[in-house]
Amino acid sequence: MDTNNLIVNLQDISFGYPGSPLILDKLNLKFFRYDRIGLMGPNGSGKTTMFHIIMGLLKHTSGGMEIFGKSVTKEKEFDEVRRKIGLLFQDADDQLFSPTVLEDVAFGPLNLGMSKNEAIDIAKRTLESLDLAGFENRITYKLSGGEKRLVSLATILAMEPEILLLDEPTAGLDDKTKAKLISILSNLDLSFILISHEIDFLFGITDSIYTMENKRIVSDKEAHLHQHIHSHPHGLYTHKHSNKSSD
Amino acid sequence: MVKTMIEEISGNDSIVYRLDPRVKIVIAILFSVLAAVSNRFVVLIAAFVVGIIILFSTGIQIKEVFKRLVPVNTLLIFLWLFLPFTFAGEHLFSIGPLTGTREGVLFAFRITIKSNSIMLMLITLAASTSIFTIGHAMHQLGMPKKLVHLFFFTYRYLHVMYKEYTRLINSMKIRGFKPKTDLHTYKSYAYLIGMLLVRGFDRSQRVHNAMICRGFRGKLYSLSSFSISKADIIAFILMAGIILILGILEWTQTT
What we know:
The complex is a heterodimer. Chain A is of the alpha/beta class. Chain A has helices at 47-54, 78-84, 92-95, 101-111, 116-129, 145-157, 175-187, 199-205; strands at residues 6-15, 24-32, 36-40, 62-67, 70-71, 85-88, 163-167, 191-195, 208-213, 216-218.
């Protein structure tokens, strides 16, 4: 893989709050354009923390981080990162803070310096592309859980990011909304890293699945004897098992 | 309850609804100041009538108006319970050992009219303008940015906080919590409030993070644009005139 397409390069990243054990310990991750990575791991294993470090919301205590080929450390340098990488938060109520849907979706584009009309235009187009036309004047706090999630996704997509970081996008969604989200994500022409506990969901829309183990990321290939207790509904889907252990 | 207090309720095709929000805010403020400082009954009743006329021109339902007037008037009931008996003045009536005075009754009456006229005006303002528009209009009128932001976030997260509160209360209830007058009750309520504070703080951090991720740098943009039309100018002059006349009426009496 050529280095031009190396988007996120985390090298030996460690993070911990003062006085507590490390949450991430020398974590390495290489994320290339067109990658669609699923990330699994127990609660509290540092998945969300890693996302927040990539976005510059948390500062890693040691290690090096290059995003789009540039090392980023200062707050200013993260401006570009935040423009090109969209993070979908776990709780949609955190993401949607404007009174109406249109205002919320237009918030990002306006921050990027677009004019009001451009922002409204792109907000409307984004909502339409997610089948949310007509939601413009809905009050954000009155949306249902599934609607909130999709509108949150719209607020991110309206900024036309190159990469998405999705933090448990399916948590708390019913099957119908989940199916919709799957079809949206698989039709998007974007690379993403997706945190989820639902392995079937991950198999459906990602190319490789990493797991979080011992405060580090272990790619599927290295994963020792990762056990499949689940059934494989996507029978045709090839996925690699490094150790030829029984499935 | 929390929800209904802050919602728009008017039909959206009245003259008042279409007025520039800045004009509405300025008029509402001037009117409130006048009503608050006036003492003459002619002025106060006139202000009350003006308030009613404007309110009904918005096509708002009477039921909704009463619902919003309940909190203020609940407070006023207490004034009516105490003021007539605690004011020195001319004897008017007696209940047992208590003597009500004319001055006391008049004073309570005055406060009642004042508060209700001001409330009517504010209900009109809130009912005919979206909260977001009011915020942006306040900003354009020179209100500090921080206050405007505070206003927005209070509006947005009041509901979330309320939901969090009911969730905690319910989790207490299903485990058999019954409020009593004892230490356990006080402690549990203290935990509840503490928990709400901590969660509120956490949430504010997460919201701020989410905003930063979307390029927030301390500036909120408005999608609504305001322009002063002829109707705005006429409405403003008309209302300013009425307020001025009432003001003169009040002033000539006191001198």
